[in-house]
Amino acid sequence: MDERIHEHARILVEWSACIESGDNVVMVVDEGAHELAVAVADRLGERNANLLTLYASGEIKRAYLRGHRGTEFETDPDHERALYENADSVLSLRGGRNASATADVSGETRQAYSTAMQDIREARLTTDWVSTIHPTRALAQQAGMAFEEYQDFVYDAIIRDWESLAVEMQRLKELLDAGSEVRIRKTATTNAEPETDITMAIEDRTAVNSAASVRYDSHNLPSGEVFTAPTDTDGTVLFDVPMTYQGKRLRNVCLTFENGSVVEYSADTNEDVLEDILTTDDGAKRLGELGIGMNRGIDRFTDNILFDEKMGNTIHLAVGRAYQSCLPADESGNQSAVHVDLITDMSEDATVEIDGEVVQRNGAFRWEDGFEASRGS
Amino acid sequence: MDERIHEHARILVEWSACIESGDNVVMVVDEGAHELAVAVADRLGERNANLLTLYASGEIKRAYLRGHRGTEFETDPDHERALYENADSVLSLRGGRNASATADVSGETRQAYSTAMQDIREARLTTDWVSTIHPTRALAQQAGMAFEEYQDFVYDAIIRDWESLAVEMQRLKELLDAGSEVRIRKTATTNAEPETDITMAIEDRTAVNSAASVRYDSHNLPSGEVFTAPTDTDGTVLFDVPMTYQGKRLRNVCLTFENGSVVEYSADTNEDVLEDILTTDDGAKRLGELGIGMNRGIDRFTDNILFDEKMGNTIHLAVGRAYQSCLPADESGNQSAVHVDLITDMSEDATVEIDGEVVQRNGAFRWEDGFEASRGS
């Protein structure tokens, strides 16, 4: 077995999920994640955890959903709910063998099943859950990469010195927690392109140090971002990293905000999809998240939001729902049925300012070597 | 997909497990049983059952058990127990990719884990559980057969007209229920071989019509036997079908009973293993079961007791524990830590009598064509 699989398992069990002796662990294994599951089981044994293994097969799900008569599903079956209610941790090992395994299940059936399982999902989210990814050929294909190339990409993102990164991210978190306003600027590279210059209020917000560990209320491995929930957004922002939403590619999304809400929008492709998102509900026109990517192990965009939004030298803004963990106890924050992340590359001619002080310039943070040098570039 | 997999799934869900709308079903999938699991999921969907899928991987189990420090396992973890306590049915789809997947786990660890999981096993056994087998290359190898040959063998055993077989087995059950004594005789084929002539009491016993359906309290697919719990065994029996017990091959086991207990024993190979079995405890010297195989889809011995003991033209006797379902309510029956099945081929020069009347001669039952003709053969 690739030694990196063992290292991945070690990080997952020790750093991310913080498994302790006697913990009741549910490990959820995708069709293609068998090898990682074997390595994780070894670590769980070593920690004297209690292991139950579920099989998350796209093909089984498809067969079950297509076999089902009508779209009535029983709400929250007792056996599955009881399982999660008695679990301490849920480890999801993603890695399908075919990203389109459930492609011919109708949206109606999919939606009905998802709605019926809502309380079970909630029960799972109240555990110390962690979701991670095992590189499979199907995922490599989805990323447009060779298999070995994709393995390198995934392990570079996952096998980090998370403890050091958590310390560094803590610095940014503290700056955000102490600050009142964030301003993001980026010079247009062509005349046709809009200038990015956008401000948002972050007073009284608590930033989350998303260090890929339940200890930091961070549930994805890899992670590596600091995020908060801004309000009162004003200005224009160009998202120059393409992303796919429900199968549709969005390029160069541009949003203009006034008093916290989108007043103008455009996209070079599939602008109607963008319109659908923004008109979902009132909250869909306001920001729910400002995230600053800090995982420098991620060196390219693969159109997988799990990786893209964590990439160093990027920021992302999400329209829609805000995370409760960023908000003061007495505030409910922005509400919406959607939460759609949009990404801007900050590696050139770009700055992040907090209360008028530049904290990141051209991707370099002010505590990093090269920050001053980056001024001139 | 092989059409027989769909037919297997249909029999499992409809005939064996009798799944109904709203049932909470746990499907336990071995590493090599994915295809059957997909077909079963389709049927479960069609019945509007609630499906949760577990992954029973020998490699994961090995890693977990070997990773474990010491041999202390937590007794009956809550999450797993809660799952089974809230399940209506458990469908185990056996079919590993390597019959020796856990070969290097110590017996001590294995035993400790098994003991710790005892209540969970019991919880599973109180559901409408069914265990079946998906033909894999590993199982074919274990049976000494080519893969396609083994697939034919397994599906011939599973894809039967179970409803008709259940009716036929009911006839034998009724004869056994009404009878007081069973006598089994078989002529020795060589002078060196002992004559089989053994009698046992079955008064007040209830035979089980093991028709591969929870409706008949029968939990294996395939099945196809009628069995009861005899007492007061007297005489000598030669088991001429070889079998493997804990990795050791036993050939031509011969047992002589007096007043219900073994007084003499021999075997052509591994007689010490036989001795170990018989000296486990007091009950290990008495019979726990008389079974009469009636599945004519099984046409050869494969050293897998699941199939061998169900084969038409065979009877099996088990030393050790009796099944409660065969006993009067006020009787506890034979108690033992073991239950070891031993098989005799009844296809030639052999009879089964109940209260002096021949009910099977040379494999033919008295209600079958050829029963009278078989007298002369």
UniProtKB/TrEMBL annotation, chains A, B:
The keyword Metal-binding applies. One of its GO terms (molecular function) is metallopeptidase activity. Its cofactor is Co(2+); Zn(2+); Mg(2+). Keywords: Aminopeptidase, Hydrolase, Metal-binding, Metalloprotease, Protease. It holds the Pfam family Peptidase_M29. Gene3D superfamilies: Thermophilic metalloprotease (M29) (3.40.1830.10). The keyword Transport does not apply. One of its GO terms (biological process) is proteolysis. Belongs to the peptidase M29 family. PANTHER family: AMINOPEPTIDASE, BLL6088 PROTEIN. This is Aminopeptidase. It comes from Halocatena marina.
